[in-house]
Amino acid sequence: MIVPLASTCIDFASLAKVRRYEAPGGHSGDLNDKVGNRNSGERKPKAKKNHFTKEQGDQLRDHFLGQMYDYQQHWWNNLNRRTRMILKSRQIGATYYFAFEALMDAIQSGRNQIFLSASKAQAHQFKNYIVGFAKLVGVTLGGDPMLITSDLRPEGEAAAELHFLGTNFRTAQGRSGNFYFDEFFWVHGFEDLNKVASAMATHKKWRKTYFSTPSTIAHLAYPYWTGERRNKRKKKDERVEIDVSNAALKEGRECEDGIWRQVVTVHDAIEGGFDLVDLEELHDDHPDDEFANLFGCIFVDDSLSAFKFNDLVALGCDSLVVWEDFDPEAQQPYGDRAVWAGYDPQNSEEGDNAALVIMAPPLVPGGQFRILERHQLRGLDFEQQAEFIRAILSRYNCTYLGIDATGVGAGVYQLLAKPDSGVRGVTKIEYSLEVKATMVMKAQNVVRRGRIAFESSHLDIVSSFIAIKKTITDSGRNMTFKSGRGGGDGHSDIAWAAMHILLNEPLDGKEAPKATMEII
């Protein structure tokens, strides 16, 4: 049989394609001319890692400049100040803004940016924001330190380095750049850390930015804010008087010592367009003194407090670094090891919050407690509060739960004390002058001896303890400890919940107490 020539040619051509496909380096284009033609065209170059084009940089800048609140725009207008110190209300977007400011400066100027916070976890808030900003314009960022290049800088110029550091000043040495010191009024060892931070910005091209909510007048950073530390080093005729009142610094100004200062209260923020909070709700949730501190930029005088600020802030740690046996994202964050919990129920009559605290008890007698979690909640009845506790403790091997069983707490206790509740070690605590005094005395001892630790960025723990003050009972005959509106225990709920846990250990941390305490 004679095979047609045309068919023979087609077979040979197809066979040649198959052989090219099967050979090393073969691809689908060898079998399909259309695919081959498509693949042979000019390929789009891969995007450079951690790199911004001019268009991406412009797009990011325009996006944020168009959505800033007035006070953020004011910070932007003063970003080239050598030193800025900003006292601000909680939750008005300061960390968010300064993360953007630093990223834009890295893109445009190529300068290094260094972020200091009370802990690594808090510093990584900057990193998370920056990574999110970059994604808005199609740039994926990574690395620690993070190296950033852009078309806005000369080709071949060194990348801008972004460092995200906790307050272990030993890890911060040897770097230079603009630095941002977040919540500097809440860090332990401010003097030592600030020496290292200032050294990072020795050259005049670098900028220094401090911003924080206020803590207490006892904090080591307070004399820097008022200018008194500078005055102590100057002759009498060289000293300056700086008005650091909220009214004087509302608009921000360069003060007599050359530092640009500003105060931004929540009222100032709302006046500047901030619309993310309900002012009436904030007033309802926080007693006047707490509201003034958290949102009104008023420093606390802890001279009447049962606990001292500097003692408490020294207990903070970088939990992500030092607690290798705890993973908050895990199904069982602390594995099978035992934890203790304390619950201060919500009292609907006084309008306070409820709080649940979970601690890892000491592994040896006289060892350290660690606050693994703390939660606050509001607006739940006793059944909902009990269900909340069950849900949280289901992730832990909880062997003790101390509950204030007075008021609303009685219902919570009854539900959780049932054999089928799923919660073990439920213990009733009935408040009295003696019980409260014992709890505070035990907590004071634990704090003074440094036997308790918590994540440094959890500022509400410190605030909660500071709010407990020594006072006289209504009869005028006995001393007790109170806090919150109307002398209640409202805004120290985290502290009281924590003290429910500490009460489970003997007063000396070793053996059971042999006598009771009488309040006179």
From TrEMBL:
Region: Disordered, residue numbers: 26-54
Segments forming domain Terminase large subunit gp17-like C-terminal: 342-504
Entry-linked InterPro entries: P-loop_NTPase, Terminase_6C
Keyword annotations from UniProtKB, A to Z: Viral release from host cell
Top-level taxonomic group: Bacteria
Comp. bias regions, Basic and acidic residues: 30-44
Gene3D superfamilies: 3.30.420.240, P-loop containing nucleotide triphosphate hydrolases (3.40.50.300)
Protein name: Oxidoreductase
Species assigned in the record: Sphingomonas aurantiaca
